[in-house]
Amino acid sequence: MAEFSQEEKDNIQKQFDELLRLSPKCHKNEETLALVKKAFSVANEAHYGTRRRSGEPYILHPIAVARIVSDEIGLGSKSVISALLHDVVEDTDITLEDINNMFGPKIAQIVDGLTKIRGVLKNKEGQAENFKKIVFTLSEDVRVIIIKLADRLHNMRTLDSMPPEKQKRIAEETNTLFVPLAHRMGFYNIKMELEDLCLKYLNPTVYFDILHQLKGSEKKRIHYLNRFCIPIMMTLEQHNINYTITSRSKSISSIWAKMQKKNITFDNVYDVFAVRIILQDIPLEEEKAMCWRVYSYITDKYTPNPERLRDWISTPKDNGYEALHTTVMGPDGTWVEVQIRTQRMDEIAEQGYAAHWKYKNVDGFEQSQLEVWMKRVRSSLMNPDEDALKFLDDFKLNLYSTDLFAFTPKGEMHRFPVGATALDFAYEIHSEIGHHAIGARINKQKVVALDYKLQSGDQVEILTSESQKPQKDWVKIISTVKANNALQQAFKYEKKRNIMRGQQILSETLEEKELPQTPTVLDKLVQGYGLVDKNELYEKLGADELDKGKIVEYATNKRKSKKIQWWSFLPTISDKKEETEDDKDVKVIYHSTKYTIADCCHPIPGDQVIGFKTDTGYEIHKNNCPIAIERQQKEVAQKIKWISRQEQVFLTSIQLKGKDRIGILHEITGVITNQLNVNIRTVHTETMEKEFTAYFDMYIHDSQQLNTIMMKLQKIKGILKVERVEQRNWR
Ligand code: MN
User: Fold this and answer.
1) Cα(378) to centroid(ligand 1), Å
2) Which residues are CB-contacts of 657 (< 8 A; sequence separation ≥ 6)?
3) What is the mean pLDDT of residues 40-53?
4) Element (H, E) at 485
5) What is the pLDDT of residue 683?
6) Are 69 and 146 in contact (CB under 8 A)?
7) CATH C-level class of 212-359
């Protein structure tokens, strides 16, 4: 291991001190500061002796990333700590567990996220696809993505020392993945810088050509700028307005884009620079009026191009950007773009949403504001407009509260409803793996039982055993259709096999004693064992659940049959005497009865239902279902009493109306999934003004459970109305 020189060590310390100086949020209190210092010393020690390709000590990279995160983006100490540690799990001996122990679960979660993204990016197959998945899995904490962005920015800034092949690959990846991400999150400066850096490595001729031309025309530009700005400045002074005026040239990549689009040379790109006027000390409620006032001062001096007026104040861009843009005709007939914004808007433009919460930062509010911000970023990631993040298009809002993602050891991603277990995962991979599953290893660490509830981002390795087979009580721990189908299939197959085996055992035993196999003998056996019918007899015999030694005894039994005490529990149609209902026409059905649930009204056990006879059983409708009512004009409907079995669930839907407030959706899903242990399939919400309407499709057992849920939801603050949806288009 190469030692560092004293000079290098001093430089490392110097860079870290500089980071601390630029990170006011790390000085919040002693404890925070100590933790940041600890993160530095842990990372410094772990990376000690390793160097980047440029030859400098590796640790300078995490320090630089932390500095971008803190100084350029404005995030707090947790992000700084995570940035300092972002490469240690992948590159050094330090484990996630160590980080968890030293810095707590939050930091560990962020570092884990960063490590996972690295893993995904390494995997060249379907990179964009993978990245998309990762973004959603890990956007649980948006800081993961922001730190990743900072990491990439620093790598792009220092890409010079990489071999050309790698430069190209990384630049391409940055162009397709990180540029749109930065745009979407409102990090304009980062986006611009990344774009320019991409151009530098992907098309160096163009890049350096434009760069030289910009440099060459700099003096001329400054001169022109003065001529343009001085009249504006004088007016603003006159009106006692506090402002700063800046100008920056357009980014190289946007100039290049314009040259290509309009098929013109550099000299003909007229608006190579924009003038930005930032108004200081403007109260929030006066911002809009002030910006327009300044607009009118400017257009008094210079003629505006009406087609190039952009009002991002009345309707901010959906990534939060606010400003007034206009293009005016300056001296010599040159078009100049002018951007007018307040200090607050400027910081939002520079730092993305990070600035939003800064403006509402009251003591103790930081955390919740951060959450609000993350939520906005998340929903903005999930509701892309046409031009941005095309690759996120297929994701919809209703995804994040109801679904989770888990990975195979090879990094393949699978989607599950919240509440899904390791066993669901096993069946998702393959039914054979499900049938033989005995447990799972999560994130290459702990081994868990099959009923382990998956967490988003988990990497799951299923442990199997040849001797394992599907268990009856597994139906209680699965929640995916796929697992249920596979299990039912297996049970059916097993049952068939047992019946055949049982028949064989029975005939062999009876033959040996020269007893006939008559219906009477079979009846005696069924009664003797206390069963329902001969099928059950065969099946249980085949499954070795009955004592074979009793066959002869029961078959020759002379006594009267005893009462079959199982009857009332047994899942079978009881169409005659057992029916105690006054109404003789009522059919009782249980879950083993062959029936189908009507698609139009989705009844659940406990509902008032009727059935129409089908080839195999009944099609069940709610008795107030309009489709069923219509059908009854031509067809006789059977009255039905529907008994629920706890292990069976039915899809049903409720509608909630309430006042839109932060966290209400979270509270609602919390009640449904945590308190009541019900699986939600989809959530769909609509917000109008301050009111929202939410639809929850969920799996429940019966109407009684549904009533409990609805009552509990009714009690949530802000909920105005809870209703079962009778008719709904089920997807
Ligand atoms: Mn890194």
Assistant:
1) 23
2) 691, 692, 693, 694, 719, 720, 721
3) 93
4) helix 481-512
5) 67
6) yes
7) alpha beta
What residues contact residue 197 under an 8 Å CB cut-off, 6+ apart? 156, 157, 159, 171, 174
Q: What is the set of active-site residues?
A: 90-91
Nearest in space to 539 (alpha carbons), one of 570, 510, 496, 569: 496
* Strand positions, DSSP E, 207-330: 243-249, 273-279, 303-304, 310-311, 324-329
Residue-wise pLDDT tens digits, 308-340: 888 888 877 766 778 999 988 888 777 888 999
List the domain boundaries for the chain. 6-204, 212-359, 372-488, 489-555, 575-641, 650-725
Q: How far apart are CA 128 and CA 132, in angstroms?
A: 6
Distance from the alpha carbon of residue 102 to the mean position of ligand 1, in angstroms: 21
Q: Please tell me the CATH code under which domain 372-488 is placed.
A: 3.10.20.30
Q: Are 183 and 349 in contact (CB under 8 A)?
A: no
6-204: CATH architecture: Orthogonal Bundle (1.10)
Measured in angstroms, how far is the CA atom of residue 324 from the centroid of ligand 1?
A: 37
Under 8 Å between Cβ of 50 and 91: yes
The H or E element spanning position 727 is none
Distance 56 CA to ligand 1 centre (A): 14
CA–CA distance from 462 to each of 408, 449, 452, 467 (Å)? 9, 10, 12, 15
CA 88 to chain centre: 26
Note the pLDDT of residue 362: 35
178: Cβ contacts below 8 Å, ≥ 6 apart = 149, 152, 194
Q: What is the pLDDT of residue 227?
A: 83
* Mean pLDDT of the 25-44 span: 92
Residue 189: closest CA among 72, 74, 318, 350: 350
Q: How many residues does the chain have?
A: 731
Residue 439, CB-side half-sphere exposure with 13 Å CA sphere? 8
pTM: 0.50
Furthest C-alpha separation in the chain: 120
Tell me, in angstroms, the distance from the centre of ligand 1 to residue 45's CA: 16
Mean pLDDT of 652-678: 77
pLDDT of residue 289: 92
Distance CA 564, CA 577 (A): 14
Q: Quote the CA–CA distance of 527 and 557 in Å, as a whole number.
A: 10
**Ligand 1 centroid to residue 119 C-alpha, Å:** 12
For 240-255, write each residue's pLDDT tens digit.
888 888 877 788 998 8
Q: Ligand 1 centroid to 19 CA: how many Å?
A: 17
Please name the CATH architecture into which domain 650-725 falls: 2-Layer Sandwich (3.30)
In the reported structure, the alpha carbon of residue 65 is separated from the centroid of ligand 1 by a whole-number distance in angstroms of 8
